[in-house]
Amino acid sequence: MTAATVLVFDGHCGFCTRAVAWLLRLDRRHRLIPLPYQLPGVPQRYGLAPDDCRTAAWTFTPDGRWFRGAGAINAALATAVGNRLPLWIYRLPVIRWAQDAAYDWIARNRRLFPGVTPWCSAHPDAGGDADTPPLLEGRVRRRGR
Prior knowledge:
It is a single chain. The chain is of the alpha+beta class. The chain has one domain. Helix content is about 50%, strand content about 10%. Strands 2-1-3-4 form a four-stranded mixed β-sheet, covered by helices on one side. Helix 1 (about 15-25) links the parallel strand 1 and strand 2. The protein is globular, with a radius of gyration of 15 Å. The relative contact order is 0.20.
């Protein structure tokens, strides 16, 4: 199995859960592992404080790089589509500034945006195993159709 990229996100946020579901639909090779930071041990495993997780998404790549906020979303998108173009575009200074500003505003106001049932509400009994959250288990079942 190829090492995967991990996306740590807010599982209490319907907008965030919707964005993760969109990324998973794009990820046909199953290289992205989304983990709600509310799962026991997730923030600690990645060296994050809960406040870090409340303010931004985080992505950790198999080669040891990490990204926060807009960079994390671009890294997750690059992983999902199997193409580094989103990260290349994000490196352009004006693009980075605009995406960071937009991400920070959206993150502060994310409760105002439409979403789906937040991951933690849809999986209230998921407290135990942060390695295989039910979000991924359902994805593996769909694969066999």
